[in-house]
Amino acid sequence: MIKLIALLVAFFLVPFAYAGCITPSSNLEIKNDSVLCSGTHILDKGISVSADSINLDCSGSALVGSGIGYGILLDGRNNVKIQNCNISNFEIGIYLDSTNSSVITNNHLANNKFGIALYNSFGNDFDNNFLSGNVDNSISYFPAPAIAAKEGNKSIEKEGKSPPGEIMKEVIRVKNPFLSEEEVSREVDMIFSKYFNFTEENLEIRREISYNESDGSTSISLHLKPKKALINVSVYDKIPKCVSEYANRIFFETAGYEIIENDPLIMWAFARIENEKEVSYKVFKRLGDECKELLLAFGIAAGFEGEKAAKEPEEKKPYMTISAVAVVLLLALFLISRRKKSS
User: Fold this and answer.
1) Rounded to whole angstroms, how far apart are CA atoms 121 and 142?
2) For position 273, which CATH number holds?
3) Distance from the Cα of residue 98 to its chain's centroid
4) Helices marked H in the chain — which ranges?
5) If we measure between CA atoms, which residue out of 188, 206, 217 comes closest to residue 284?
6) How far apart are CA 265 and CA 173, in angstroms?
7) Computed from CA positions of residues 267, 268, 271, 274, in that sequence, does the dihedral angle turn out positive or negative?
């Protein structure tokens, strides 16, 4: 009889237990202690905790993203606990922004760009989390807030392609922060009048973009093809925010680059380009056609090899003329002195 009563109680309580779980959906906000329903949940965008002192238990469920954004976001939170989550295929599995005194435990984060990442967050406890197959399997500390992770795919409607002149102004402002706007403009005018058109005529830059289904990454390559051997070449690549919000979230496959601005604005420098070269990097998302159109790269070369040598004969001509005049004068003096002696 007791067993029968226990079975009846269990029969009636189990449905209520399952009824209390939450099925995760894109942009879901967790405002109270919550348990996610078990299973695999495909999300275009992740979920966020929007209150303090919350306990979120994923109960072993899997959150699978589309290669962008975050899986779980804690923004400006305190005393939150995240546990028993399986998170994959996001840019950031679990992201803490300005979040303190929270516990992230017993989670499995796989095949993201960053498994766990923090910005401006202190006193948090990370215990018994398993990270595998991520581009970065360590806990990452960002120097700047990962705005793109919060917003997922940022709208590019308000973003336009920056012309090369504006990009060079950015470069000069960074390199020479004490210049006035007038001085910056003069510097840009000088660079473009002396080097830009020359480089455009002699350096072909062709871009290739390919998407890899296996890891959800997009590879972006610049093929540099010089018409002649160029010297002191700088190649600038202005990367729009729809590709990546910050340069430190781009995986650069070619060394020798400099981050001019984390916005991002990248420069590759070459002492000499004689043959074709390639520079490449990848981002862990799929790019739309509109976003691809916003990519812009251009080069600035100081000149081409042999240019100085070609000018040297012209520079020597005045010296050769002076030497010839000196020889004629000496010969004339010699002849005059001989006539005097003979007379």
Assistant:
1) 10
2) 2.60.40.2960
3) 22
4) 2-19, 147-151, 164-175, 181-191, 197-202, 289-293, 307-342
5) 217
6) 13
7) negative
Q: Is residue 320 part of a domain?
A: no
- Residue 227 has which token pair? 């018409």
Helices 181-191 and 164-175, axial angle in degrees (round to 10): 120
Q: Given this model, what pLDDT does residue 342 score?
A: 57
Poorest-confidence range of 113-117, 194-198, 330-334? 330-334
Place of tokens 């960002």: 142
Q: Which amino acid is at 50?
A: S
End-to-end CA distance of the chain: 158
Q: Give residue-wise pLDDT tens across range 280-311.
A: 999 888 888 888 888 889 999 988 876 543 34
Shared-domain flag, residues 147 and 10: yes
Q: Do residue 77 and residue 192 come from a single domain?
A: no
In terms of domains, do 129 and 251 share one? no
Per DSSP, the residues of 156-225 read -TT--PPPHHHHHHHHHHHH-TTS-HHHHHHHHHHHIIIIIHHHHHHEEEEEEEEEETTTTEEEEEEEEE
**112-127 pLDDT, tens digit each:** 888 999 888 888 999 9
- Domain residues for the domain of 237 are 164-305
